[in-house]
Amino acid sequence: MILGKKITLRALEDRDVELLRGWRNHPELRALHFSTLPLSQAGQRRWYEQYSDQASTLVFIIENEAGNPIGYTLLKNLDHKNRQAEIGLHLDPAFQGQGYGTDAFQALIRFGFEELNLHRLALQVFDFNERAVRMYEKLGFRTEGRLREAFFTRGKYCDIVLMSLLEGEWRNQ
To answer: I need a surface site. Which of 20, 36, 102, 108 has the fewest CB within 10 A?
Structure first.
């Protein structure tokens, strides 16, 4: 387990499959995924089996102070040679705006840099997701660039913003 101030990150387990499908199919969250199609039970099962059996991806369930699952976060495309990974977060809308996402990301960043000895964490976020962009900037992520009109969602094309955080930047905050 990885402890934050308000949350605990625990390993993804088989019992979480339907919970994940609910979050990934939630109308508010689905528009923030890079796949906007509804996810079936079989599709979620394949996703779980793929990610739970891959050394290059670590998925953690976020639990609040009461031990209730409220979202998930992940490190994917772990590259130990170059000491880098992509980082992601999906939080139940009922728990957004309460500091849980920031705390979960802080805990995962600390784990990535201190325990996995990573040098660089990167992420992709849609330009219209301004709350997430502000949170990432607050945590020290810097914009590296953008993929212009690279994804179609909510009836229009949007930019994908590329951001990263280096270990030295994180340590010097």
So the answer is: 36
